[in-house]
TrEMBL record:
The lineage of its organism: Bacteria, Bacillati, Actinomycetota, Actinomycetes, Pseudonocardiales. This is Alpha/beta hydrolase. The keyword Nucleus does not apply. It comes from Amycolatopsis tucumanensis. Gene3D superfamilies: alpha/beta hydrolase. InterPro entries: AB_hydrolase_fold, RBBP9/YdeN. Keywords: Hydrolase. Transmembrane segments: none annotated. Coiled coil: none annotated. GO terms for molecular function: hydrolase activity.
Length: 180
């Protein structure tokens, strides 16, 4: 059985976000991170929150998949680099470009200088061709640096609540590439 760690971006995922719908679908096999710094993200706090959620999820499933959105992608990648866990996969949706003009440097300064490094597990980066936080070339470069496949979707913005994805069934289809 697979357990999931839900890793939202700044301020968490609201009730209309696909991460929230998936968390409800998965029930007890899903664990959402709980950092103390949702609004003004601190990298160390978020990485610790990923580790704590992973520890809980690992007791609920034989395999764990990290399901990250936006800034949560960076928290997941940094935790993976430090923890080097086994039996993990990672689904990275709409990672923001730390060097891009729209990166939330003031709200999340500890995330601003991060660089993508090879991930120690299977994964997938999913991006949109019109994401205001990451140009397609930048998201492709992140996937390449993380050494995971990349999927570019057309016209879905930041792949969040404002994108109108609902429970995002095609995203669940993409997730199977990691969870299988």
């Amino acid at each position: 059985m697979v357990a999931y760690v839900i890793i939202p971006g700044i301020d968490g995922s609201d009730e209309k976000h696909w991460q929230t719908a998936w968390e409800e679908r998965w029930g007890a096999t899903a664990v959402r991170i709980a950092p103390a710094s949702w609004t003004e993200p601190d990298l160390a706090d978020w990485v610790a929150a990923v580790g704590a959620a992973h520890a809980t999820a690992a007791r609920r499933g034989e395999r764990v998949v990290l399901v990250a959105h936006s800034l949560g992608c960076w928290a997941a990648a940094e935790w993976l680099a430090v923890a080097q866990p086994r039996g993990v996969g990672v689904f990275l949706v709409a990672p923001p470009d730390p060097r891009g003009p729209a990166f939330p440097r003031q709200a999340a300064p500890t995330f601003a200088n991060l660089r993508a490094r090879p991930l120690p597990c299977p994964g997938l980066v999913v991006a949109s061709d019109d994401d205001p936080y990451c140009e397609p070339a930048a998201s492709a470069a992140l996937a390449d640096a993380w050494r995971v496949p990349w999927r570019l979707l057309a016209g879905h913005g930041h792949l969040n609540s404002g994108s109108g994805l609902g429970d995002w069934p095609s995203g669940l289809g993409l997730l199977t590439e990691v969870a299988a």
